[in-house]
Request: fold
Amino acid sequence: MSWQQALSEIESTEFDVKLNVVSSMGAFFRAAAKESVVIDLYQSMRESGDAGEEVLGRIYDLSQLAVDPRYENPKDTPLAILLWLTYFTEPAYGQIAANYVDRAPQCWYAKKLARRILTPPPVASGDAWVGERQYGLEVAQTSSGDTMFIMNPVTQGARPRYYKKAGVPSSTAGNTSA
Amino acid sequence: MPRHPSARVRSLSSVYNCMGMVFASRRTWIDPEHLYMILEDDDYRRVLHEGELVRGDLVIYRDEEGHVTHVGLVAEVRTNLREARWEVIVLSQWGEVGEYFHHIDDVEPNLGKPTEYWTDRI
Reply:
């Protein structure tokens, strides 16, 4: 499956329903990590800069859509998944994408993840290794049992690093945390 | 729901999740991670066999890794004499998708499998 097809399927209503039967953020991302379309897109984003940039553009487009204020944002699921993948493949883009998503109206999982990326929980002294549950985000595993990635930026070992990359507007590349 | 022939919709509200349906009168979402705290606080006890279930008891679902993924209420317990087993009909809210009556095993794969039964009967 091409990454364009995977992207399209992640935005489908069927995919949205499949993931939104679960009731918590951890379960949502665990379920997502088992989906072949998510794994395909993740691999493509790791291997191809085009896919990563296209996904970032798609996050921007989706976050700008007008929604009926009475209902949840119908693009909450793709926004959450695309932000998640972006954060773990291109951390610098992840910060930018989290800013877009944080401004998208009526989101749930996407907004929670964006807030988590933008304001990671503080680490107190003595918290050298606090385990997974303290921060609410867990290791996600593929259906084959391999650890796909860790959702928690703190337990992952480092905050997103800053690096300048062609195509990233300099005005948005202000995070110099090491 | 073509993939779930036993499922009959009861409501399409997204105001509450499975935990909110069971423990909060359909008013809000409750994270499943609080399940065992609630069971302990409210003096629930385990039911060890399907045959002991009655309407209103709880069914807890877990995924392959053992995480609690879902909870539902027993709506009906039928005896299937021909196949010598119990048929348990559950009422549960599937995330934000809707509330369904369904056979105990007939749920979306992401909701896991039924692993435990609990009751607050004296």
User: Anything to note?
Assistant: The longest strand of chain B covers residues 68-80.
